[in-house]
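note to self: dont lose this again. the chain is below, predicted strucutre after it. 84 aa total, dont forget to put it in the shared folder this time
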Amino acid sequence: MAGALNAARGGHGTRGAPRRRARPGAAGRAYCSGQAHPSVARAPHILGFHREQLVVLPADASLRLPVDELAGRVWLTLQVMVGV
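---
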């Protein structure tokens, strides 16, 4: 996940490279389940995301990320941020 987020944020993936901090409310979002390992929540922060940009969704009965809920949240984000 960290590699994908780094690529999405335009990072170089090297130590000491300048990190660009997105402004609060920026379009970038990361989604994870409330059952995800704490490192999953830390990765976006390390890459420059603000806390508001990490969306934690409740896990389903099998403790997995519910795909329907995720799709709905992504669609809502697109509608608000881009006007889709």
